[in-house]
TrEMBL record:
Keywords carried by this UniProt record: Signal
InterPro entries on file: GerMN, LpqB_C, LpqB_N
Signal sequence, renumbered to the chain: 1-18
Statement: the UniProt record of this protein carries the keyword Signal: yes
Membrane spanning stretches: none
Residues in coiled coil: none
Annotated ranges, domain GerMN: 200-289
Region (Disordered): 22-45
Keyword Transferase found: no
Protein's recorded name: LpqB family beta-propeller domain-containing protein
Organism: Lentzea miocenica
Amino acid sequence: MKRLALLVLVLVTLTGCAAIPTNTQPKPIGSKDSKATNTFSAPEPRQNIDSFTLVRDFIEATSNPDSDYAAARAFLTPEAGKKWDTKNPTIIETSFATVPTSQAPQDKTQIVMLQGKYVGRLGNDNAFTPQLGDFQRQVKLERNSENQWRISEPPPGVFIPLSLFNSNYRRVTLYFYNPEFTVLVPDPRYVVIPPATSIPTRVTELMIKGPGDAVRDTLVSSLGPETDSFSETKESDDGALEVNLTKVGKDLTPEKRKQIVAQVVKSYSGVTSSRVRVLVDGQQILPDQRDYRPSDVSATAGEALLALNANLQGMLVVDGSIRSLTDGNPIKGPAGAGAYGAVSAAQSLDGSRLAVVSRSGGGMRLRVGELEQDLSEVVDLRATSLTRPTWQLSTDPKEPGNEVWTVMDSASVARVTRSDNGTWSAKGVNVTDIAPFGAISELRLSRDGTRAALVIAGKLYVASVVRNNQDVALRSPRQLQPSTLGSSVQSIDWLSQDVLVVSSSMPSLPVTRVYTDGYKLDRYSQSNLTVPVSSVAAAAARQVQVIDPSGLWSASDITDVWKASAIRVSPGALVFYPG
């Protein structure tokens, strides 16, 4: 239909696109009862090409998953086609090689070596996971009855060159709730593009399956475990995108219905600009409204919890004093007067509380309290070093933060919580999954509280925050942009729920923007900056602030030239926004 042209199909060179199921046809991903039929006719490989070219053509053909990779299977012998495993495709760099092996070629058989570099892989959940390193795989070929080369032993799995992955798949962002159902959290996946009219149905099927593997124990869905598609997700005659569900659960309360609507509408916000109509068994899910746009669900999505107050302009730590980023003047109270000899600090999301790391007796201490008042020392938290603090999301926009995290002695993660009587005490966080990676120099909780970004041995990692009653752990860690950033990372902050701003010691990459699934990296301008960029502050709808050896700089977008601030900062200064 004409209005389906409203689907957002803009591809950016490095935009992530999508994983595909084992049997990907022009039908919903993971569809339980799709009636789509196999209509794809795969072309035969070019006649009389050499074995090396045939292997290259085969790899390029794997970018087309129609009819269970029929285009790629045309390069295989019938026996090999039956055995070839197409689960969990692997993305490789566009430049790959097909080279001879040490074995002498035979008239009827030959072995070609496939060589290249990994970029990442797609899991069963259609999510991207970065993968580092070189690979080489033997590919065995034999001549068929027409004396044409065909692959008798293909490499295990599907290998897709990055450029073709970008052209044939696209990134979609699903949304699920934090465990308290107070805020929606992005969960990026990847879907095959053609045919474009099937993308909405694919998104529905992925949403029904629930959170991805990395956040399965962190996020929750408003949809019941038995939820299914009542009918195909498509545009109605009046232009609304109809998402028709069934088996969503019995005795749905009005609040639960609102949560379902918010989750569905947000998950389609990057897929269509049409109105979204949420139905259950063909009936309108809420009686008071039929169609929705993202702005209609902002309250249920918890956007107010994440939005920074316009009056909170950020702060600096300069020469032991906490100062305003607005004018560089000390804030009111002992922290601004330099009473604590601050090394680093963090302001709660609502702005009312402050956590300060200070030197004391040859070690570091954490002090927490009301912004302009005396800060209490956390007596059960003593360490040789503490990373700059980071605040956990509160449960209400007007409620002060009650939990702050820091890393002790580069190894142990502590979360400091406030009791009913106003005292602050430290509790441990299980870091078994990240401990083998090395020393932790920085940790930042996402402002929705569900992910943690870490700098470990100079490398960038993201882990999921898993809460099980009083037990809290960092799980499913993954290194982001390992081949690009290496071990040069200096400072990190959250620009949005699924995007980080990262500073480094590399002259070519002083500041970058990195997506939390690790697929995409954008370079900020290098103009005016000097490495290392030691501190970075980022937040939605705010300028990115960084500190390098020459001072404090700001930029609004990746193409902006960095502008110098009139505020003078000394070496070791730190800049931060609430969070």
